[in-house]
Amino acid sequence: MKRWKYLLTRWRRDRMLAPAVAIGLGIAVLTVNPTPLLPLARAYRSLCEQYPLLALLTFHAPPVPLVLLLILAGIVMIAATWAGLTGLIGTHRFNQSVRRNALPLPPYLARAGAGLGIADRLTYLGWRTPAACCYGLFWPRVAVTAGLIAQLDDEELIAVLAHERHHLRRRDPLRYLLLHALTTATFMFPVAPALRRRQEARIELAADRAALAEAPRGALAGALLAALHVSRERVPGTAWLTATEARIAQLSGRALMLEIPARLMVASVGLAVIIVVSMIDLAVSADLVEMVCALCTGGA
Hints:
Layout: H1 2-14, H2 18-32, H3 38-50, H4 52-57, H5 63-100, E1 102-103, H6 107-116, E2 122-125, E3 132-135, E4 141-145, H7 146-149, H8 154-169, H9 172-185, H10 191-212, H11 217-226, E5 238-239, H12 244-251, H13 262-284
Parallel strand pairs: 2-4
Antiparallel strand pairs: 1-2, 3-4, 3-5
């Protein structure tokens, strides 16, 4: 049983390396045998003969490495578009759900919001789950559930609202969605998710510092504790509870930033090196498909 748990943990840890290994092997194979790239390279050369400005815009790049670069760029664009669309759809559905379930503000919540200048940007939900979030991409609002308010005293409520006000002012839901799309677009580099979590931690820590300007440290700690054990599916375009370890460390007076595992950094740098070396090798082999156009050196 312990061995199976070890293997499962190892698989979860190393599966992030799979895209880098697959892409790296694919690029290495194409570098050794670039035959699959040649038809596209010849098609690009033909276009440049017909439209010399195209060669000028691509800086007269050798066709074969340029085709490989365009393929990688296409993979990135497809992944980014997919992540952006699915993130927008999920965010829109969540926002619609919040709007449908919104209730009139309780007087004490309205007073607390008015004191922070966000009474008109508050949404009250009757959900029993203790939670608060900033939602809405271009006109963000702050949602607070009845389950959370029931567990907070006045100072803790102010701490929560001040934290979410910082997200609101900086339009952090939009930043979270962009981070989600960017991370998905660069999926081939295993370090990307770790960098995203690190940036999200910075965003949350900045919001906590803004909250500490309005409420005591103990109040913010109590509010964090109230929602700490709640698990909820993450919506890309909302600012939910994240980076709890770093936030607890900051409240304790310690600086703690998420570490980037060395294996992820090594794999990402290794893939970048493979791409650069492949581009150089394919560029040297320019005789595979020579660049000929009216604007190229030695062209027709």
